[in-house]
Each structure stands twice: as structure tokens, then as C-alpha cells.
Amino acid sequence: MSIEIKLDKRIATVEILKQFENLLEIKVDDKIYQVDLMHNDEGIFSILVNGRSFNIELVPQPKPKHYTAYTLYDSYNLEVIDAESRYLRNRTGGAQMLSENTIVSPMPGKVVKIPVSVGDEVKKGDTLITISAMKMESEYKSPIDGKIAIIHVMEESTVDANQVLIEIEKIIENGVESQI
């Protein structure tokens, strides 16, 4: 299975052909590479290709599957375009699926779990809802620090593509955003 990686304005098709532990044979567009790839918990990748070493830090952005990639000298905007992303783009004409304070269902599915309630304070990255779609369960996380304002669905309910699931409000105290 291949994915596309959009790096600034360039789009490359990437496919893992073989993998044994951290040794990979990958195909980027039509060229094949032997890669030694190590990853640590802080999002830093050490890549060895043709005797050259590269360190890349991937920092997640608020939009799903969007990252900033930092190398020693440069930074790049990166987007992973997989089957789910292509499906969403085709269904929505490329419309943005997630605003800063809203969790939206990317495709039809069923709500499996909602571990939060209205009024709960959440931090960026906290799991807010789990949806089952296409035989897979996906967790959707809070894009911001805030408080659960509205939950539009219940566990076990069926949801449509582009349906708003949860709305989060930033906590404002004395005209200043609060840090939870």
C-alpha cells in the first residue's frame, strides 16, 4: 500500500516494499532506496541512506496528518495523504475537516466510546471520542486546551461524514486565555 507525502509543494508517492526491524526497502516515486530508520518517542527520526545520515524532527500540527519537519538547516510543511485523506478530499472537495475547536467525523461510522462529558476540562492531545469505521477504530483527540462545550452524539450512535461530534471552548479568564 502506498501513501503520498506532500512536502511543501512537492508530492511524492511512498511505498514500503520490505521491512525487517529498522531496515526498510522503500520506493519513492519510481526510485528504490535501502533505508535504516530509527525513531524515538520525541518524534525524532534518524535515517541512514546510501551512507549518509539525516536527523529529522516531526512536529504535529493542529490539522490531522499535518507536520512540520525540521532538519539541521531547513524546515518543511508536510502532509501525509493516505487512503482516508484521499477519501475525505473526494467527499468534501478538499474542504477543511477540523476547525480549531471542533471534532468532525471524517467518514461514516459508529461511536464506540466517549470518555469525556460536557464541562470536562481537556488538554491538547486528550482522546475525546473513538469512532469505528471501515473495520478500524480511530481515536480523535483534542486539538486545543479547553472545556467540552457540546457533545452532539452518544455512544453506539451512527454518524455521517462531516458530522460535528464534539465542540470545545477555550477557557477565558479575565480576558486572557487560561492554561489548564
Briefly say what this structure is.
This protein has 180 residues and is mainly beta. The protein has one helix spanning 83-92, and strands spanning 2-7, 10-20, 23-28, 31-39, 44-49, 52-60, 66-70, 75-81, 102-104, 109-113, 121-122, 127-133, 136-141, 146-151, 158-159, 164-169, 172-173, 176-177.
Q: Give the mean pLDDT.
A: 83
What's the helical proportion of residues? under 10%
β-strand number: 18
Parts with pLDDT < 50 across at least 5 consecutive residues: 92-98
CATH topology of the largest domain: OB fold (Dihydrolipoamide Acetyltransferase, E2P)
- Broad structural category: mainly beta
Name the CATH superfamily classification of the largest domain.
RNA polymerase II/Efflux pump adaptor protein, barrel-sandwich hybrid domain
Query: Describe the biggest sheet?
Result: 8 strands, antiparallel, barrel
Distance between the termini: 41 Å
β-strand amount: over 45%
CATH class call of the largest domain = Mainly Beta
Tally of individual domains = 2
> Which architecture name of the largest domain does CATH use?
Beta Barrel
Overall geometric form: elongated
Number of H/I helices = 1
Keywords for this structure?
single chain, 180 residues, mainly beta, OB fold (Dihydrolipoamide Acetyltransferase, E2P), 2 domains, eight-stranded antiparallel beta barrel, four-stranded antiparallel β-sheet, 18 strands, 6% helix, elongated
Q: Could you explain how this protein is built, in words?
A:
This protein is mainly beta. The chain has 2 domains: 2-81, no CATH class; 96-177, Beta Barrel (OB fold (Dihydrolipoamide Acetyltransferase, E2P)). 6% of the residues lie in helices and 56% in strands. The chain has one helix at residues 83-92; strands at 2-7, 10-20, 23-28, 31-39, 44-49, 52-60, 66-70, 75-81, 102-104, 109-113, 121-122, 127-133, 136-141, 146-151, 158-159, 164-169, 172-173, 176-177. Strands 1-2-3-4-5-6-7-8 form an 8-stranded antiparallel β-barrel. Strand 4 (31-39) and strand 5 (44-49) form a beta hairpin. The termini are far apart. Residues 92-98 have low confidence and may be disordered.
